[in-house]
Amino acid sequence: MRSTETKSHDVSWTVPVVVANIEQGGLHVAIEANEAERGEIARIVGLRDLPKLAAEFELIPSGRDEVRVVGQVNATVGQRCVVTLDPVENTVEEPVNLLFAPVSTIVEPPGQHAEGEPLDDPPEPIVNGRIDLAKLAVEFLILGIDPYPRKPDAVFEPVHTPPPPEDHPFAGLAALKERGTAKPPRKRS
């Protein structure tokens, strides 16, 4: 997942953590968006509403200037059923496990191992010595949203329309028969 691939940068909710302030034993951070922030996020993401958005993270120093961020984003999202257009509420519980590194140390992988297996994604960038946990929470919220929400009892039943009679393969014969001009088949001798 790349930070630049989502709309979360348009959100004003921000909870930056200065990487230099993370102790060797790590740092536990719990965040929750307030009503105004949730309203803005719902509008940007395209949700009917966002009654809850919270996350818990463990930030653990890893290697040289790198930080492992592990946690979970929990949200309640209001959407519209794709079948009935009725309001529905869904739960998002999205696990987070990412490595962050300074931008100057991130090297894009060449593509694949010699065995043909894809390489792991490079670390996420630490921007200006900070990791913004709110933006991270919004990115994982977006990943966890059901793109086709459906009420539990909603069933899509396609409308079955029979083909028009004139499209029937024997429609021409039927028309001749109705006019009385159909000739009986000749007997062969």
Describe this structure in words.
This protein is an alpha+beta fold. It has one domain (3-144). It has 3 helices and 7 strands. It has helices at residues 35-45, 133-144, 171-179; strands at 16-18, 27-32, 49-62, 66-80, 87-102, 124-126, 130-132. The protein has a 5-stranded mixed β-sheet, with helices on one face. Strand 4 and strand 5 (87-102) form a beta hairpin. Residues 1-8 have low confidence and may be disordered.
What are the key terms here?
single chain; 189 residues; alpha+beta; five-stranded mixed sheet; two-stranded antiparallel ribbon; 3 helices; 7 strands; 32% strand; disordered N terminus
Question: Which secondary structure elements does this structure contain, and how are they paired or packed?
Answer:
Layout: E1 16-18, E2 27-32, H1 35-45, E3 49-62, E4 66-80, E5 87-102, E6 124-126, E7 130-132, H2 133-144, H3 171-179
Parallel strand pairs: 5-6
Antiparallel strand pairs: 1-7, 2-3, 3-4, 4-5
